[in-house]
Known about the structure:
Helices cover 27% and strands 28% of the residues. The chain is α+β, with helices and mostly antiparallel strands and 197 residues long. A hairpin with a 2-residue loop joins strand 9 (156-157) and strand 10.
Amino acid sequence: MTINHKHINQIFEYDGSQINPSWAFQEFGIYGSSVITWIGPVNITPDNLKDFADVGLEIKSNYMVNFICEFFDQQPPNMRVAYLRQRLLVMIFREILTEYGVETNREGDDIFVDGGKLSISIASVSLSSAKIHFALNLKDEGTPDDVDTIGLYDIEVNGQHVFTEENLLDLINETVTRFIDELETIENDISKTKVLG
């Protein structure tokens, strides 16, 4: 499976509509499986909520790194596989944070640092593809009042800020590179493994 990554330099809002199928093709002309990344606010409108548990809640932030993943390799798309890939992405990012010396906790698909919620995520499927949205606060600004949050730019190790505008794109690219490599490695392992029986 070939997966293309494109980082969009333009700042725009994630409102939940980007989780719709073939968004990367419709907006950027990108065929096939892809990971699209960009920086922008998040304000998910009620009509675009995909998680029944989130109905009635505010999901918003002034400044986030957004990842939209879309996969066409399974027909029909499989919700369980979509969620397994989502968790893989979350765990890869958490692994990278650990390498930077950042201590984290994970609850399902949510990452926490110093008790503050750093990330949001959802996975779902359409008739043609599986989709994942994964986003990370950059600053603790514009988030819901009833949720303790933290941003990447707020994180300190030994009194020093770990992430800045200067190294953010490197963090994004490293995360996507490792994620794609894991998925491609799985495909390669499947192709060379003898079935049982």
